Amino acid sequence: MQATIRLTNLLDTIADLLPLTYAELTQMTSKQIRDKVAKPLGIPGCYRMKKAQLIQQSFQELENARAYLQTSEVEREQAKQALKQLKKNEDY
User: Which segments of the chain have a pLDDT < 50?
Assistant: First the structure.
């Protein structure tokens, strides 16, 4: 039960972080970036990083998450189209 709650909180947090831009990250303090962005994204060693490193790593992780979600969305759409085609041809 508790693991489910943590996973839900993590997904909500990541969803809130995805719209962050590079400019918004630069306006945050190092502590804000560590606590609100780097730690939830699971960036190792974030407490030893300088602000510039935090911004770079955080932005890179956000870009990776965006790319992964975009790929998953494209794959889902392709699967839906394939199923529609199969139903149309009654080959399923």
Answer: 1, 92
Distances (CA, A) of 69 to 43, 66, 72, 83: 19, 5, 5, 21
What is residue 77's predicted lDDT score, i.e. its pLDDT?
A: 81
When divided into structural domains, the chain yields a total of 1
Amino acid identity of residue 73, one-letter, is E
CA torsion 55-19-21-38 (nearest 10°) is -10
Q: What is the DSSP letter of 69?
A: H
Between the CA of residue 19 and those of 52, 63, 74, 85, what are the distances in Å?
19, 10, 19, 35
DSSP symbols for 16-63: HHTT--HHHHHHS-HHHIIIIIIHHHT-TTGGG--HHHHHHHHHHHHH
pLDDT at 4: 56
Residue range of the domain that includes 15: 2-89
